[in-house]
Amino acid sequence: MRQRPDGRPQNGRSTRTKRHLDQFDRAILRILQNDSRTSQRMIAESVHLSPAAVQRRISAMENSGIIEANVAIVAPDAVQSSITIIVEVHLQNDRAATIEPMKALFNATPEVQQCYYVTGNGGFFLVMLVPDMKRYEHLSRTLFSENSFVDTFRTLVVLDRVKTGLGIVIPDF
Amino acid sequence: MRQRPDGRPQNGRSTRTKRHLDQFDRAILRILQNDSRTSQRMIAESVHLSPAAVQRRISAMENSGIIEANVAIVAPDAVQSSITIIVEVHLQNDRAATIEPMKALFNATPEVQQCYYVTGNGGFFLVMLVPDMKRYEHLSRTLFSENSFVDTFRTLVVLDRVKTGLGIVIPDF
DNA sequence: AATGAAAAACTACACTA
DNA sequence: TAGTGTAGTTTTTCATT
């Protein structure tokens, strides 16, 4: 049976990885990253493809994990007044037995919006969102002060969320 | 012409404030924050309302800005291998004439995913996403080294994006 | 790539607390 | 008056050719 040049079977359901994103895929991603409710018809018009083609490409990218999720961005202060806090955490050491439990802890704490493990002196950076300082004081006690893995931590209160977003730069080629 | 007690015109498109979010609104937000493509029928079932009621509440929350946007989350490394970098920037002073241009600069730089202005010695925290260190070196020169508003800056390379997300805690009452 | 069926989103209207 | 459910219309999504 004849095969395609790339070796995949002709009818192959490539539920896994998608080899390479072409111009069209990138253009679609740029749109959905801004507004995931844009109709396939409008996307099609904008990228010069048929709605069906757009639809296939979107499902392919969803199946292959290129599109991780579609989410609503909720304005924090519309729901409840809140304070954003950045925390720099330094651990006693950078062994896996220390790092892994901390990752699990931060993952399990809903007030921790984001957590990054960074180079250098065994450190995490956290972006937290709490209703008030009382709540943060309480959280910081359990998460940091009374945590034997933690050496030191530094708390920075955010005065202005100048730019928030997870949108990435999608290159032209 | 008769006006409503709150001064808005009778047919006024109440694009502004929604009084208070009730249990239903919160339940809807919790769902959409995880998956904005959940159908109104399913949401309705889950929160015990009619699909039409769900639809009205969603539009109201979109119009009033409680739902800021619906976006697709794109896996950065699926599009292009990339490095996440956290930068702590200290300014020469904390006057508006210094801060405002910096905010504008960071807003205009697509590689800057997030920017927070924090308390203390006139500082910003940035989360940046770049294709490689060469690109970061170039960006850091224009953004920081050669920028007269900037006093010092500290670069931290992210080894693990442990948790990334903008989801907020929506309280029960 | 185009067509048509299925599903979802939206609108109008009458009703209720 | 604000908000609901029912039912009907339009739009979008999706599978088939």
From TrEMBL, chains A, B:
Query: Which Pfam family name is an example for this entry?
Result: HTH_24
Q: Which domain of life is it from?
A: Bacteria
Q: Which PROSITE patterns would you find in this protein's record?
A: HTH_ASNC_2
This protein's GO cellular component annotations are: cytosol
**GO annotation terms (biological process):** response to amino acid
What is the taxonomic lineage of the source species? Bacteria, Pseudomonadati, Pseudomonadota, Alphaproteobacteria, Acetobacterales
Q: Which GO terms describe its molecular function?
A: sequence-specific DNA binding
Does the UniProt entry include the keyword DNA-binding?
A: yes
Stated name of the protein:
Lrp/AsnC family transcriptional regulator
Q: Where is the HTH asnC-type domain?
A: 21-84
Q: Which UniProt keywords apply?
A: DNA-binding, Transcription, Transcription regulation
